[in-house]
Every structure is written in C-alpha cells, then in structure tokens.
Amino acid sequence: MIEMWTGRFLRHWWKYRHIIHSVVGTIILIFTLIGWIIMMSNAKWQTSWDNLHVVTGNICTWLVLAMLAGGFVLLGLMKLVDLPWNTKYINLARHIHHYFGYFCVVIV
What we know:
Layout: H1 2-9, H2 14-42, H3 52-80, H4 88-107
C-alpha cells in the first residue's frame, strides 16, 4: 500500500516520491525473493502443483518480478533515455505499470 500511497498522495514532492517508490519496491522485491528461496529450498526446489498455496506463492513471486521489471523500464525511459515527458512511450509504460500494480493488489 505504500507503493500506491506514494503515487497518489506525494505528487507535489515528485523527487522524493520517485525515491521512496523505488526504494520500497526494491525492498518488496528482496523480501519476496528471500521468501521464495526459503520456500523452494524447503521443498527441495520442486513445486507441487496440486497445492493451491504453492501455486499462488509462485504466481505472486513472478508477478512481483514482472512489476519490478516494468518499474525499471519506466525509470529508464523517464531518467536515462532522452525523451521528453508525456510522450506516448512514457505514458504507455506508466499506464501499464500503474494498472499492473492495481492488478497485483487485487490478485494478492
């Protein structure tokens, strides 16, 4: 929820909003990967597809990875590539990242 809060309520502090959003997203990724590695090592690196909890955990892990990849693409388009703001590529990447975030919240 901090991720959605930084996007919605910190618009006038745009520099701090991007930093907070990126740091919290990376922390979420680290905790998700640590949990996934612990789960997979306890299961001897084999997944049981007949257990709903295991399937949901794997899906959520890959959703978080996809969300972070989308965030890095968006950050790269906004900060590293010399594109003016509000171009169709940046708006498309921003909308995909935005709605994919809401989709992940609804799924999880």
